[in-house]
Amino acid sequence: MDSQLDWHSARALLEWQVELGVTETISDTPVNRYDAAAEAVAAAATAATIAVAGAQPAAGMDPVDLARKAAAGAADLSSLEAAMASYGHCDLQKGARNLVFCDGHVGARVMVIGEAPGRDEDLQGKPFVGKAGQLLDLMLAAIGLARDRHDDRAVYITNVMPWRPPQNRDPTPAEIAMMLPFLERHVALAQPEVLVLMGNVSCQAVLGKRGITRLRGQWTKAFGLPALPMLHPAYLLRQPVAKRDTWDDLLALGAKLKGQA
Ligand code: URA
């Protein structure tokens, strides 16, 4: 059997591995994992000994505190994006191709906060550009809003997490906590009038609550602004019957923008 891979097979294998979540190539030569496991156990034992002996993380090194400081130092949106790019304490960054910061019009009355980039968003570096994003655009268009407008019908879009989690898993509470100060600053700098919280992760991060099927359609307050939790468009793709509820929520959003709610 010819052990040489041709270019196309090698590329197909590589793409398959990336789809499975491989984020780093380590070396060209095989590694004996049994030896590596023994070393890891020894390293963990040393770390545990140090911990028992009372070693603490250096003062001021709490990732959430560091995020707060970095976010507070950003005077405008491009500095905020740069601060997020150089933050360096969220491991999701290592596996992502791009930092997904925003799309739409700065100064829009409506700011949509989604969960986290998926594959398409990671590739393009923009939020909501895959199938769920196409449905989001249709939902917004149903009440006359669009991300490519620059007037009072414009929309600004971001996510709780700027990096794609592997296999599109939900971000962990620790990952959410460390990115939350950046999101709060993002809202303050973008200055929308209302927030739309898309899905459970967004509600968990911003409101500290899950249960989107109960929360949806109920106006609440977040970061000092009126906020409307809505079903995530990815959920609507799986459960089209729920689009009826979302229509009610879109009408509620439209009414709020017209000052009727
Ligand atoms: N889902 C989200 O919540 N955000 C995106 O950017 C894409 C899909």
Structural summary, described in words:
- The structure is a single chain.
- The chain has 261 residues and is an alpha/beta fold.
- The chain has one domain (62-257): Uracil-DNA glycosylase-like domain (Uracil-DNA Glycosylase, subunit E, 3-Layer(aba) Sandwich).
- The protein contains 12 helices and 6 strands.
- Strands 1-3-2-4-6-5 form a 6-stranded mixed beta sheet, sandwiched between helices.
- Strand 5 and strand 6 form a beta hairpin.
- The longest helix has 20 residues, at 33-52.
- It is globular, with a radius of gyration of 22 Å.
- Mean pLDDT is 88; it is low at 44-57.
- Bound molecules: uracil.
- The site of uracil has 13 residues, from helix 7.
What's the arrangement of secondary structure elements?
Layout: H1 7-20, H2 33-52, H3 63-72, H4 77-85, H5 92-95, E1 103-104, E2 110-114, H6 119-124, H7 131-142, E3 155-159, H8 173-190, E4 194-198, H9 199-207, H10 212-215, E5 220-222, E6 225-230, H11 233-238, H12 243-257
Parallel strand pairs: 2-3, 2-4, 4-6
Antiparallel strand pairs: 1-3, 5-6
Bound molecules: uracil.
